[in-house]
Structure prediction request, 536 residues.
Amino acid sequence: MGRTYLAGTGLTRFGKFADASLASLGRSAALEAVRDAGIEPQQVQMIACGSARSGILQNHESGVGQRIGWEIGIEGVPVYNEKAYCASGAVAFNLANICVASGEHDVALVVGVEKMSGRDGKGRPLTSDGVMLESEVGFTPPAYYAMAAQRHMSTYGTTRRQIAGVAVKNRRAAHSNTKAQYREPISIDEVLSAPQVAGPLGLLDCCPTGDGASAAVIVSAEGAQRLGISPTIEITASVIGSGLYCHEQRDLTSFALDKSVSLRAYERAGVAPHDIDVAEVHDSFSIAEIIHYEDLGFCQAGMGGSLIDSGATALGGQIPVNAGGGLLNRGHPLGATGVAQIAELADQLRGRSGDRQVAGARLGLAHISGGFMGLDFATSGVTILEARQSG
Amino acid sequence: MSVVGEKSLGQGLVTNTPEGRTALVVSRCTSCGDVRCPPRTVCPIDLAACELDSVEGDATVYEVVRMGIAPLGFSAPYWVGLIDFPQGFRIFGLIASDDEDPVMAGDQVSMIVGVIGSDPTGLVGPVFQRSSRSTSPQITEGQRS
Prediction:
């Protein structure tokens, strides 16, 4: 497999935009990405598009990627549409990366897009596609994470204030992110006094739904040479895994799938958790970020709450996590998030993150969890990017 | 009125035993005896064929949470959790509870068939109600803040 490079990224604002469509959102992000890469849309050789709920929410089940290609004049190329829950964009990125690394194509466009603001049940928790049976009896994602929060608190003594600290930290980071859905600072007391959603988790511990799109251009070394561009970010690992369903008696204080996927990613990239300079971590719910710290190896099991207290994962800390605000604040249009994380990391590694720039960032990690199946996550993904002098 | 599982699995998740008691529908591997709910056709451990069976009796609450904001089709508050059965499987289920004396992790529960969700004419299925309280110390609301 050959080396692959991230040549450009694009990201729309995330939020609730009544006049936006899957096509207009995808078009904006895709055009921004190809321009950022310094290429023309017609030079793209394949499209991979992630969108989790285009069918049920927008009556557009198949062909979202084709529609976005149509919008910007990309035709006659293979288009792959990926549906993998919250990880749809990440899976599209993974597929495009494999296609470029294999040599089948040397210029790929990845798009993640979702439009959720018009959904029925606004203000209520989402259900999850992979657990239809459980949804019949009241399952929602916040219920799962609330149970995890309670287990983490009772097993390790993690406090409610530490969990709330994730929401406060990530909102502070989002303040300078003009594309984030929520930017006004919040306090621990505001998080603690917000209406309860599930168990210990309140509204400010939960990510919003919304609309948005993200895009990335992946090239091989040969592709970059042919196009006359010099990308500076190498994709050193892109790993996806499906749930570990068989063992049902899992301990909810840790997500074994994330551990196995991240270990494979670290091995492939030839780096260790302590090498990572900046990370995007799936904080769909505040407690999730604490558990992911542990599973990704940023700290020992049970020490995630202490890591928040230490400030290590805040801007200016040893390993800033979710420097763009995370899902909690940038927003979580499901299919867009996986590629939005890549776009945020790319800005960090290219030194163009402005007030939220992590000084000297060279290695970035993006982690995402997608959906539920058999009471485990249905999908998890880890991507590692490394800044290089040139492609 | 339909039964939980008929839409998502193609078969109801509760049944009546020959003695007329309600029971949970499970699968049992014809080779290793592994029991699963929802039922499997093929055993995930040894790929042998599974046959339908049913279980009844007490189970243990692994974790339970109070839902303060409900998804479509439900009214808050309601309680859900993970239930561990002595046969070795775990399921997600609706738990009958209240704020005055909430069901806690470690409590023993038994299954009844009740109305699921906020539409009284819509769906019936397994509801777990406490049969005995755990004697293990539990985390308190004070500790949670």
Observations:
- Chain A has a mean pLDDT of 95.
- Chain A touches chain B at residues 120-121, 123-127, 131-140, 142-143, 146-147, 150-151, 153-154, 159-161, 192, 195-200, 203, 245-246, 248-249, 252, 375 (CB under 8 Å).
- Residues 36 and 164 of chain A are 36 Å apart (CA to CA).
- Chain A is about 35% helix and 20% strand.
